[in-house]
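Treating backbone geometry as a discrete language has practical consequences that deserve illustration. Part of our work consisted of pairing the sequence of a single chain with a tokenised description of its backbone. We regard such an encoding as a compact summary of how the chain folds. The amino acid sequence and the backbone structure tokens for this protein are reproduced below.
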Amino acid sequence: DNFDLYHKNKSKFYGMAAIKVGNNRTSTQVNTKIQSLRSRYENENKEET
């Protein structure tokens, strides 16, 4: 039940982010960009510690 709610909200978030980012990007493209930025950030934090 909670997973369905999480999945719905996550999809809505990426849709809203796509609208805010603009440049005719789809929510999938925004999702991919956010994931890559997040993994890059996590890797940089690992290197610092």
In short: The mean pLDDT is 79. The longest helix spans residues 27-48.
